[in-house]
Amino acid sequence: MANDPNRCAELAESLAEVATGAASGPDRARVLDHLSECDDCRAELERLSRVADEVLLLAPSHEPPAGFESAVLERIAGSDDAGPEGTGPDDGSGAGSDDGHAGGEPADGTRRHWVRGLVLAAAAAVIGLAGAGIVWQTTSDERELAEGYRKTLDIADGQYFSAAPVRDASGEQVGHVFLYQGEPSWVFAVLGDAPAPGVYDVRVATDDWTGDVASCDVEAKTGGAGGTINADIYQVREVRLVAPDTPPLIATLPDRSGE
Amino acid sequence: MSDEALLAGMATGDADAMAGFVRRHQARVYGLALSVVGVPAVAEEVAQEAFVRAWRHAGNYDPRRAQASTWLLTITRNVAIDVVRVRRELATDPVAVAEMMTTAASDGDRVEDCDRVAAALRELPSEQATAVLLSVHFGLTAREIGERQGVPLGTAKTRIRTGLSRLRTMLEVSHGE
């Protein structure tokens, strides 16, 4: 894929923070958007991430109190945690098998958990945006989601992930949309500079279908929301954020139907 | 038995494999949790939650992507960071902990497989080493690191990037020996 050296240089420092897992939401969004079209930066992120992984191993070692092992085993014997849930992008590490459908159709339990993870991630993002102003409060769910993006890009060379800027009527960028190909696929919209507060419907359009998948509650200028779609992400042509008395905010997706 | 074999057992619901996995990694997981949250009782909760997540998602682990210990410690760190962000009264002084972690005196608390990265970290200017540790272990953003180190955001970002890049160079040289 074609690289833009200027863009690579602009994002070099944020790339390191994505590697350590500590990037703020907006920084992470910018990097992930760029990674979908830059092989060099994806490779650099992979190298830096391996270094960060090694640094994590420096954690001091201390024996926990007596009874720790028993306490863990009692917890997993509880009804909610009684069985492993198989594959999915939300283990908390980003080191899993990241393509939600690489192993075939997931079991119902896996699908439930995947959807639950999405809802948690969306909720975490929205709560964080509301609570922290323009600073996107990162939570483990949100980090898991972001790690899922990155690993998916690594494995699938970008084909299972797509992103596009959201622009207002004058063409100014006011946010991002992210699309993930999975079981189910989903769309997530993040506004960082919305023209007006309010509730924006996240309206997804393919050639054959248009529907609202989420409501994005914008306080001040920021907000985020997402939902699942019954379509492959390459079919999505456009995502609109629609609010009363406000011109629609529009993200136009690249045409990948021929890939 | 290897970590991969234990995780494969856990993925099929084998509680014995889980017990073995906990015994093998509990000191490291608890140690990381304690270094981030600073309170033993809370660290124990964090460590338990990390293992529960590992159990739930054992089938998700991909050895091509990371060592099992790295995978588990990443889960632990993320749980610990969430706890600290919600319960700010828990926070230790991350800068002090990070600086302590770069000293040779703390080597005895570590497992042997990280001697190489510990040595590389000590080769960095201390402000870069601390910035990297604050980012990796404590999940602090560049803005937060800048505030704690008393430097502008751009300087904090540069410290993280330069520190990580230098570590990469040093570790690549070390790998090649």
Automatic annotation (TrEMBL), chain A:
InterPro entries per record: Anti_sigma_zinc_sf
The keyword Transmembrane belongs to this UniProt entry's keyword annotation: yes
TM spans (from-to): 118-136
Keywords: Membrane, Transcription, Transcription regulation, Transmembrane, Transmembrane helix
Chain positions covered by the region annotation Disordered: 78-109
Biased composition (Gly residues): 85-97
Official protein name in the record: Uncharacterized protein
UniProtKB/TrEMBL annotation, chain B:
Residues that span the membrane, as ranges: none
DNA-binding listed as a keyword: yes
GO terms for biological process, alphabetical: DNA-templated transcription initiation; response to stress
RNA polymerase sigma factor 70 region 4 type domain span: 116-167
Record Gene3D superfamilies: 1.10.1740.10, Winged helix-like DNA-binding domain superfamily/Winged helix DNA-binding domain
Entry-linked InterPro entries: RNA_pol_sigma-70-like, RNA_pol_sigma-70_dom, RNA_pol_sigma70_ECF_CS, RNA_pol_sigma70_r2, RNA_pol_sigma70_r4_t2, RNA_pol_sigma_r2, RNA_pol_sigma_r3/r4-like, WH-like_DNA-bd_sf
Start and end residues of each RNA polymerase sigma-70 region domain: 21-88
Protein name per Swiss-Prot or TrEMBL: RNA polymerase sigma factor
Gene source species: Haloactinopolyspora alba
Classification of source organism: Bacteria, Bacillati, Actinomycetota, Actinomycetes, Jiangellales
